[in-house]
Every structure is written in C-alpha cells, then in structure tokens.
Amino acid sequence: MEPETYVVLRAPPLPYYLGAGVSAYAEGEQHPNRKNLGFFDLLWVVRGELHIGENGRDWALGEGQTLLLLPDGEHYAVKPCDRETVFYWVHFSYSGEKEVRHAPLDRFQQPFEQPFSNPYEIRLPYRAGPGGASEGPKLLRELVRLRDGNRTAAFWKEQALLLELLRLLEEGEHESRSTPAIRIAEQAEAYLKANYQAELTNGKLAEALHFHPNYIVRCMKERFDRTPMDYLHEYRLEQAKLLLVTTDWSIAQIAERVGFRHVPYFSACFKRQAGVSPLKYRRRYRS
C-alpha cells in the first residue's frame, strides 16, 4: 500500500494567498497540462470527478476530495471528465522551508533556540477527503466572492480565509488518523504545559489522566519521541529562555519559576541544552 504523503511547511513564514476561482468542465473536457508554476495549487472538487496526475502519480478526485499540486511539479490530465465536474482552485505562495514527507508524521519538533520563534510545522495532506464538507466550500465561495471586490477591503479577509482553509485540511487529516495512543500523548502534553511549574512525576501525571504511567510513557514516546519527563524538562528550559530575555529576574528566580528547585542543577541543564550559561544567554539580547 502506498504511504500517505504530506506537504510540510515550516512556519514562520506563513503561506500567502494569491488567488482563487471555480472551474466547471463539461463531459469530455479536461484539466490543462502545466509545470513549474512557482506556487501551490489547491484543488477542491465539489461535483463530478477530476482525473489528474502529477509527477507520475494519478488520481480520480471525487466530491469533497482535495489535491495540493506542488510549485515545481508537472501536472496533467489523466483523461477527460466523464460527467460535469466542478472544482475550486486556490493559489498560494510560500517562501519558507518545505518538504514532502511520508507517514508517520507524528514526531516532536525540536525547539528552536531563539526564545520568540514560536515554530510550527503546517502539515497538509497531499491528497485528502472527503472532509470539511460544509465548511470548506463555504470558505472557497467567500474567497471567490472577494476576488472582484475592493483590494484594500479584501486583503486581510483573503489571508485569513486561506489560513482557515489550510487549518481545515490539517486538522481533518489529523483527526482521521489519530489513534488512542496519540490522543493520550496530546492530553499528557497539555497537562505538562499547564502544570510545568509544579513538582511533577510520572505517577502524578498518571493520576491526572487516569492511565497507567507505563502506558503514558509509551504513548509520549510514540507521539513525541520523548518520555513525559524528558518533554517536561525541555519545555521548562524553553520557558526559562523566554524569561531570561523578557524579565530582569535573577537566575534563581527564573529557575524556581520554571520548576527547578536547585539553581546549580538548572544552570548545568541549561548550558547542556543551549550551549551557554543562563547569564551568557541573557547577555546575547541585552545592549
């Protein structure tokens, strides 16, 4: 069985909306052949069936199904439509790092060293559906409506609608492939983030989630490639970086605030992860 394919966009930056439209093909018509467009082309079929291929892979897209054509790909008609077919298309550009990746996707992303980076991997299914049956076409219709309006009034709405559309695709795919183990791991992640300042153990986490600690550890390693305590340790250090830059608190205050009870141990852990002491890290960002 062919593995699922995803397009991973590392944010920042965010995708930028270029344009949208709707195409209707009568029986016997087909999608044009194109290559190296330089932007992503998202297709969303609402009626009929579209026969299209890209870079040697062919699909028959039915109602509610989507395909994300690549900026540097070569896409072409596999065969003409055998009945009336209607689909929306959305063009958007992206100037950051991107890659095509195969499942499984669910692994923890290493934190960035910069304290304000707030990184995120946008994980879009190459082909998906049916999904977002009611919300997706509604967003697409609004994008098409805005196309002929005042540019200044439409700009922010268009960008927001694009991101909402991509959110639908990402979350819909995640929910369809989520397993009990992944859901438990994500519950554990949320609990650790909400309570990272407290003294936490695998036992306390297990009590809060009502699962055996060994099971939670297995789930976290499957989802994040880390044990709960390893995840907690790294998250505490990331919060410490933020406080070093945004406050004048002492190293001891910051260590206690993020859950470390002993300053020398905090400093040793911080240097091992960041490569410099907490004080030297702070000086990077001070004039």
Give a short overview.
The chain is an alpha+beta fold and 287 residues long. The chain has helices at 135-147, 151-177, 180-194, 202-209, 213-224, 228-246, 251-257, 263-274, 278-283; strands at 5-11, 16-25, 34-35, 40-47, 50-54, 57-61, 66-69, 74-77, 85-93, 98-102, 120-125, 127-128. It folds into 2 domains: 5-177, Regulatory protein AraC (Jelly Rolls, Sandwich); 180-283, Orthogonal Bundle (Arc Repressor Mutant, subunit A), CATH 1.10.10.
What does this structure look like?
With about 290 residues, the protein is an alpha+beta fold. It has 2 domains: about 170 residues, Regulatory protein AraC (Jelly Rolls); about 100 residues, Arc Repressor Mutant, subunit A (Orthogonal Bundle), CATH 1.10.10. Helix 3 crosses helix 5. The radius of gyration is 23 Å and the shape is elongated.
- How much of the residues is beta strand, in percent? 15-25%
One letter per element, helices H and strands E, the order comes to: EEEEEEEEEEEEHHHHHHHHH
N→C terminal distance = 57 Å
Could you name the CATH topology of the largest domain? Jelly Rolls
Can you give the mean pLDDT? 90
List keywords for this structure.
single chain, 287 residues, alpha+beta, Jelly Rolls, Arc Repressor Mutant, subunit A, 2 domains, five-stranded antiparallel beta sheet, four-stranded antiparallel beta sheet, 9 helices, 23% strand, elongated
